[in-house]
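Why does residue order matter? Because the sequence determines the fold. Keep that principle in mind as you read this record.
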Amino acid sequence: MKSSLKCYESSVKRMMVMFVFAISCGMMFAQDAQKKSFFDNFYAELRTGATTKQHNTLQHIWLGSIGYKFNNSLYGFIRTEFIRGIYEKGDDRTHFKSNIGGLGVGCKVLSLPELSGSLDLQGMIGTNIYDSEMKATVYEMGVVCKIRKGFTPILGISYRHTNSRTDGIPHFNNVFFSIGMTL
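Structure:
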């Protein structure tokens, strides 16, 4: 038990160090945003997606974020997620639900001028915010491709570690694929 806990702690530490390094790189290349009002830098994001199957469980996730752009490259956000996990136990299929609230940061790592978009690196940490069948802490690190400015379709792929605190529901390490839009 102790060795798996140490392995888990070291992987979380490595993920956080890599994320801080990526944000630092983004800040080095950041350009100040054009003079905009305070409210022009807010944005909203809606996405849906699914994780890869692990422990006979497939998770469907709906999420919403409200964020603030600090400059052209760096932004922070508050996210809420609704998770529905579908799993098989023997011949039975059943489900669980969870509600996660979290904080995250992101940075633009590559401009895509031919698409008028960008490739962004995002990280998020969240935990349960109210009535959930699965109590968990979620760590997510991923890449999001924003295709156009304004009403922006987005595609995302992330590594997601879910540290379950519910008996009978294991920890998950999944790839999370998502699609959505930024307003």
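Residues 76 and 105 are 4 Å apart (CA to CA).
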